[in-house]
Amino acid sequence: MQKPKLKPKPKRLAKKLKPTPSPNSQPKSVKISEVARRVGISASMIRAWERIGMVRPFRAESSYRFYSENDIAILRRAVYLRRYRGLNAPAILEQLREEGYLNSGLVKDKARDSVGPTLRRLRIQRGESLQAVANAAGVSVGFLSNLERSQSSASVSTMQKLAHYYGLNILDFFDRAENPHPHVRAADRKILSGGPGVYMELLAWGPIVMEPHIFRIEPGAHSGESYSHEGQEFLYVLSGNFTLTLEDALYEMSAGDSLYFESSRPHSFANPGKKEAKVLWINTPPTF
User: Fold this and answer.
1) What is the rounded CA–CA span in Å between residue 36 and residue 43?
2) C-alpha distances in angstroms, 145 versus 129, 159, 169, 257, 265?
3) Distance of alpha carbon 211 from alpha carbon 235, whole angstroms
4) Distances from the Cα of 60 to the Cαs of 47, 69, 184, in angstroms?
5) Rounded CA gap, 145 and 232, in Å?
6) The pLDDT of residue 51
7) Which pTM was predicted?
8) How far apart are the first and last CA of the chain?
9) Which residues have a Cβ under 8 Å from the Cβ of 164 and sit 6 or more positions away?
C-alpha cells in the first residue's frame, strides 16, 4: 500500500527584528529645567558653573541649552563637593580635573581665580603675618588661610579691604597677562569671582579711565559688608532684581533701572530675587 505523500511544512519566515540602536548613536540630551530637577540645584547655578567651563551644553538654533548625561554626572559630583566638602567654584573645578571628570586640555577655565596665590605672595613679600592681614581685612585667620590656598572665595567688600591694605586695585589680584584689545568678544571676556554667587565679567581692561563690568549675582548672593573707595559709579540693571544699599538708603531695582552715585559713600549690593540678576556696572577711575 502506497503511503500518502505528506505535504511539506511551510517554511516559517524569520521575523525581522529592528536593529537595537547603539546607546552612543543618539546621545540623550535634556533641557536645563530637567537637569536642575535631577541634580537638585537651580538653573541659575548651572548657568554660573557653565560660565566657568564646568559643563559645555549643546546650544540649538532655538538657543535652548541641551545637557548630556556626562554633563549631569559632572554636575552631580560638583553638587556633592559643594555641599559636603564646602568647596567653592574654582576649587570644585580643580577637584573635578584631578578626579578626571574634566579634560583640562579641552575645558577653558574662564574664572581666573588666582587671588589666593597672589595674596600669599604679597603677604610674604611684606613680611606680614596671617593675623595682621586678617585683622586689617576684618576676617578670621582661618578664612584668610583658606583664601590664600584657594579653598574659599572672598566677597567684593573683603577684596576691597585687602586691595586697600596692599595699595592695589582688586584686579591686581587676578591674572591679567593677556594684552588688552579694544574689541572684546563675548566668549573672550575675563570672568572673576567676587565671592559666593557673584561673578564679574570684564568688558575692557588695560590702561583705561572707565572700568566696565557685567555683574552676575545669583539668588541670595551679596557683596558682603559695605565698602567705599574713590571715584564715581553707574549701574544699569539688565535683568532680574537687585538692591543697592547706599549709606542708609535702600534702592530696590529691576530690569531697566539705573543708578549713579559717588563711590566714597559706603555701599553694598544683593540679589533678593529667585533668578540671577545681571547688572552693567561702570566705575571711574578704575578701582577693580
Assistant:
1) 6
2) 11, 14, 21, 39, 30
3) 12
4) 16, 17, 24
5) 33
6) 78
7) 0.58
8) 112
9) 229
pLDDT at residue 180, as a whole number:
64
What are the chain's domains? 29-98 (1.10.1660.10), 115-171 (1.10.260.40), 177-284 (2.60.120.10)
Inform me whether the pLDDT recorded for 178 exceeds 90. Answer: no
Q: How many whole angstroms separate alpha carbon 31 and alpha carbon 39?
A: 12
Adjacent-strand bridge partners of 241: 254
Rounded to 10 degrees, the C-alpha dihedral 177/170/218/73 comes to: 40
For residue 76, the cross-strand partners are none
**What's 214-278 look like in SS3?**
EEEECCCCECCCCECCCCEEEEEEEECEEEEEECCEEEEEECCCEEEEECCCCEEEECCCCCCEE
Report helix, strand or coil for 135.
helix
φ/ψ of 219, rounded to 5, equals -55, 130
Q: Which strand (E) or helix (H) includes residue 31? A: strand 29-31
CB-side neighbour CA atoms (13 Å) of 106: 7
Task: Tell me the mean pLDDT in the region 158-170.
Answer: 86
